[in-house]
Every structure is written in structure tokens, then in C-alpha cells.
Amino acid sequence: MDVPATLKPVEKPTSDAQSHSGAEILIKTLADLGVDTIFGYPGGAVLPVYDALFDNHDLKHVLVRHEQAGTHAADGYSRATGKPGVVLATSGPGGTNTVTGIATAMMDSIPLVVLTGQVPTSVIGNDAFQEADIVGITRPITKQNYLVRDVNNLESVLREAFHIATNGRPGPVLVDLPKDMLNTKARFKGTKHVDIPSFKPTIHGHQPQIAKAARMLSEAKKPLIYVGGGAILGEAWKEVTEFAERLNIPVTTTLMGLGAFPESKPQSLGMLGMHGTWYANMAMTECDVLLAVGARFDDRVTGRLNGFSQNSRKIHIDIDPSCIGKNVDVEVPIVGDVKRVIPAIDKLANPPEISEWWDTIHSWQKEHPLVVPEADDQIYPQHMIKMISEITDGNAIVVTDVGQHQMWAAQHYQYNHPRSWITSGGLGTMGFGFPAAIGAAMACPDRDVVCITGDGGFQMLTCELATAVEYKVPVKIAIMNNACLGMVRQWQQLFFDNRTSYSVFGSNNPDFVKMADAYGMIGMRATNPKEMKEVLQKAMAIKDAPVLMDFSVVKEENCYPMVPSGAALFEMVESDEECKR
Amino acid sequence: MSTTVMTKDYRHTLSVLVKHNLNTFSRIIGIFSGKGFELESVTFASEAEPGMARITITTYGDEKTVEQINKHLHNVVDVLKVTDLTHKKCIERELAIIKVSTAKVGRPEIMLIAQAFKAKVIDITTDKLALEVTGNTDKVDAMIEVLKPYGIAEMSRSGSVALKREFQGAVNIN
């Protein structure tokens, strides 16, 4: 992959021979790399950086209220724009607080650069105050990490970090900065070229494999395209859409791939997997040629492996070779950038003759549609999502937490645009939604950002209400409030004999509207669809401040279709009754 | 190192050329512990080229598992090259120092065994002999098996080091 436009140098190289402190070099390098926003929280070890930031007006620093929220915000910023997110935290607890955010980004391949302060090199290893081996701690959850031991390397390490985070399969990179490195003087070189001989991701697919894939698709009777987050990360939505439309092949997207193919198109089967649509899961089960595009055959997608798409010949395009053949055997592996491989296949493929296949799919769609229950006196969760979809015209950036609301939001909001669905798919991090929504809203001030969250996930990082208010971030928080951990409760009901162990908050939840008030922001509540509509309309009209909406929803509603844990895709159930059987 | 041996799987020797730093070494070991791959032995030392190091790993697994190991190793940013020597002609050596008790049978019998394996006697005490043996892992394994009944007091193995043979024809000059 080429260096994204956003990383292209913004200034001319400077031949400035003057020496700068490490902290100044850090700021200069970030600016040189095109970074405009960083999310951070100060502390002892990074004070030299904060001192350098005091006079700097090119780089916007967003003061979050918790470092975990800082990483999620940077993550949301990145998912909304494609640019790398940048986090700044101090040593010890500052660094350890970023861990959940880094792991979240790692699982979803989000480019982040996390900068942590460290105790001075002279005392590293001495259990100094606020010392933690953050390089050791984050090794398995970063693509690469560094401890800077020589200030003369600081600039090149930072440039490498951004290069690695954004090229190939993206991911988080951490740079640990001992305090003495930030204070020591060195020269800012301004050398933009980065060359890492051991890091050369494969971009162009293998031509004979591409030709074979094209042949298989052209001759298929029941083909299916399965699009994952790689199509978003690789910015290949246009290529995927044109290809699928021209060949008229059905498309299903994973949770991470939502928005890569417009759901308004007739080829779209929506999401597949554990809470995917009936017809997407059946198409996956029955297809004869499967084209996987930047997807990784996650267990939430495949269900029981020996019941997964048994009769299909599989083609798998991925930039990361270790994703291919990991869970499912593949006949045609293609290592490369989807943005280049898809057009290459497109050039050689002919539309297959599949009208019978479409008839079958249409009959599934007719018999097993997604159901949106509605009532006048209470809010069904599915209805809430549908209404948000309608009121925002499907044009908002939707950011979620994890659980029932996340799955309903994936099912019932119509995603027609890429980078408009932001969710923690791989790690499933509760607490992700609200701070990520702040990051997305700051990155895209012209777009509506709705944070669909649950009363559980939202409470994990409510401290960020202060951040949203301070920066007047116009994020619309829509709490699907069922006074319990809905997905946990659903599993306990279905698989643990309804023993709802520690999953029900009941009346112990705070009054979210009062909470909003305490932070000096607007809070509104709705308990029926009529109120919900009014609240949503009022909220969407506010463009310069955050709004909190507390929607009391039907408490015991369960999310269907569902592939029970350990079952195959075709064994999905659509109701509580069916599940009992 | 773990010595759990999955007998039904094949033993693979991987030679990994990396940038010389401990973070890279830890990342590579982390792949084995974090993803649950087998690791029989590992050696890590500087290469002739400055700033580079070679890691020789012996692992057990079926072809699919070892292919995954290969891919994960390649994904480590500072890894330049991974060579699976298993199906190639390679030069493989391991060194072991073994202290054997001479209490049961006396020195001559042990020394005779050492001779058969071209091992050297490197230390002698009243009741023990220390032997140094080099060879491929099978040879070292075999010698240890033969010595076990006499009582092995202590032992230290280096783990395999290996390189691909330049000439891949059918020659064995072990």
C-alpha cells in the first residue's frame, strides 16, 4: 500500500541544524507526518511533551478523562477517516490504561500510534515511581513497539511507527519515551523516506490465482461474496460494489464490513454470522463458490466449522497471509491488497448464470425477513434502531458498544456508506462506544454521529461526558436502556436456565438524564415511540453540543436470528420458542 | 524449553533471520506461547552481519500448523527471512554435556559408549564422567537413551543450530 495521502508530508524538509529537545522533535515529527489531532492525558513522565504542546497551535490536543477513552477516541477518529489515531499517555498507569484500547485496535486492525512516557533510562528496571514495562505488556497486542533509548533515533522511530501502523494490515504501534529522551537535545532531520527491508507487505495478487478465481466465479451456479473489514481498511468499497453489481453476485458483509457494500443495493444480503440474517447464513451454507474479501473467517461468522459452507470452493483475498487458511481451508489463496485484486479479478470474470440461485435467495428473504416488533406504549429495541436509521436517513456515523444493542444496530440500521459504522468487533470491548464516538465526531464535524450504546457499556466510561462537553462535541448518545446486561441475560436465559446471575441492574442504574444535567449537557428521556421520535428529532437538530437520550426499552427482548454457540450457521434460531426446542 | 513432544506430528527446524534486538526475540517466543504452538528448542545468537541475529527453532506440528507458524513469524516486523529446513538438505548440529555416574559399571564401559558416539570426555571425578557430544538431535537423543540406565546426574543441551546446505543434491557427509 502506498503511504496514504493523509501521511504525505505537509511541509518541505527543513535543513534546520538547530538542536531541539526530544519533546520538540516529537511534536515536529507528528506535524510533519500530517497529524492534526492527538488524544491524551498528562502525567510526570510526559511533562516535557506537554510543555512543548503548551506553545504549539498546529496540533490539537484533546484532553480526555481516562487514557482508555483516549485510545478508543483515537480509534474512532481513525475508523471514521482512515488516518492513524494518535494517543499520548504517561508512564505506568497511563500506559496500562491504554492496554484495552490497544487490544481493541489490534483485533480490528486499526492504525494507532500510542506514545507513552517512561521513567528515565537510568532508572528503568528499578521499580521507579510510575514505572511499568509497557513494551513488554503490549507486545502481543501491538503490530510493533519501541523503547527509544537514543534521542537521535526518536524521529526515525516515529516515522517507522506511522509507516508500520498504516501499511499492510494496519494495526497499533506503541512508542515508549523515557523522560530523559524527551529532555535531551538532538537535531530534527526531516528525512521523510522510510525503508524497512523486513517489512514489505505483498500488494499485488498472484496473477494465475486471480485468473483461477475469475474462472471459478464466472462458472459458478451459486456464488457468494463475503466482505469483511479489510474492504473498509483497504478503501476498496467502490471496487467491491462495482464488481458485485456487474457480476450480479449476492454480497454478505461481516460485522466489520458493514458499509463496504451499500445495503440498499439488491445484491446485499446484510450481515452474516451469529446474529446475521437468515438468508445470508443460508447463502453461506449453500453457496458453491465463495469469494472472501478482507475477512478472516472469525468464529462468530463461521459457527461450527464442520458445518460451515461445506460445498463451496473458496477464494480468499487478504493482505495478511496468516489470515488465510487459519480457520478454514481455502482452494485459492490470494495475498494482496483488495483494492488491487478485486479490479484484477473483475477484468477477467464474466457474470455467471445464476437466476435460480437468486430465486432461492429471494424466497429465503420472503420467508425469513428481519423482524421489527412495534408497539404504541413501549419501545422495542429493534424499533429504536429503525427509527434512528429513518430519522438520520441512513447517513449518520453509528458508533456502538458491545452486546444486544450492537447486534440490533448492525441488523436494523441501513448502512450505505463506508466508515459509517464503528464498533469493537474482534475484542468486543464494552465502554468503547462513547469515547470512539467522540473521536469520530471530532474527525468528521460535518456528519451526524450517533452513539448507540447500552446502559452497561455506557457506564464504563461516562467520565468522557466531561470531554464531550468541554469540546462541544455534537455526539448524540442514544442509550438503549433495558436496565440489564442484555446479551449476558439473553445467554443466561437461553443456555443457563434463566439464572440471571449478576446481569440485572434494575433500579440501581443512575438517572442518566440527571447525569447529563450534572455535566452541563442536554439529557432527554423517552419511554414510548412517540416520545422517542420527538426526542430524536430534537437531538438531531442540535449541532453544537452533545446530547444524551435515555430510551427505556422492552427489557426481556432477545436478539434473533441467533446461531447458538457451537451450532452451525444453518442451525440458527429465530425465537425463544425455537431455541427451547 | 518445553519438551512436550507430539509424536504424531513432524519435527520442523526453522531458521529465522532477524534484526538483533531482544524485543524481536521476545515477540517470536510470544508467538509460540501466545498462540499455543509447540517449541522444542530455540537458539539465538549474532549473525556474521552486524546488527543481525539468527534464531533456530525446532517445533512440532502438522504441515498446516507449521505453515501458520511460518506466516506468523513472517508477520513480525523485524523478521527478514524464515527458512523451513525440514524438507531441505541441511547441516544441523546440537551440543550436549552429560554427566554420567560411573558407580554402577566403572569408567571403561561408559568411555566405550562415548567412543561409539564420537563423544569427548571433558571431566572426570571419582564417581562421574562428563561427556561432550555433538551431532544432529537424533544422535544426541540416542546417546542420552543409551546412557540413561547408568544414571545421568546432570545434562545441558544447546538446542539445534542449523543452516541450509549450499548443495541440495543427494550428498550426506555427516
Q: Mind explaining what this structure looks like?
A:
The complex is a heterodimer of chains A (581) and B (174). By secondary structure, chain A is α/β, with parallel strands linked by helices. Chain A has 24 helices and 20 strands. A 6-stranded parallel beta sheet of chain A has the order 3-2-4-5-7-6, sandwiched between helices. In chain A, helix 1 (22-32) runs parallel beside helix 7, helix 9 crosses helix 14 and helix 16 (381-391) packs parallel to helix 23 (529-541). The longest helix of chain A has 16 residues, at 151-166. The termini of chain A are far apart. By secondary structure, chain B is an alpha+beta fold. Chain B has 2 domains: 10-84, ACT domain (Alpha-Beta Plaits, 2-Layer Sandwich), CATH 3.30.70.260; 90-163, 2-Layer Sandwich (Alpha-Beta Plaits). Helix content of chain B is 28%, strand content 39%. Chain B has helices at 22-35, 63-75, 107-116, 137-147, and strands at 10-19, 41-46, 52-61, 79-84, 90-101, 120-124, 128-135, 152-157, 161-164. In chain B, the strands form 2 sheets. In chain B, strands 5, 6, 7, 8 and 9 form a 5-stranded antiparallel beta sheet that branches. In chain B, strands 2-3-1-4 form a 4-stranded antiparallel beta sheet, covered by helices on one side. In chain B, strand 2 and strand 3 (52-61) form a beta hairpin. The model of chain B is unreliable at 1-7 (pLDDT under 50). The interface between A and B is medium-sized, with 19 and 18 residues.
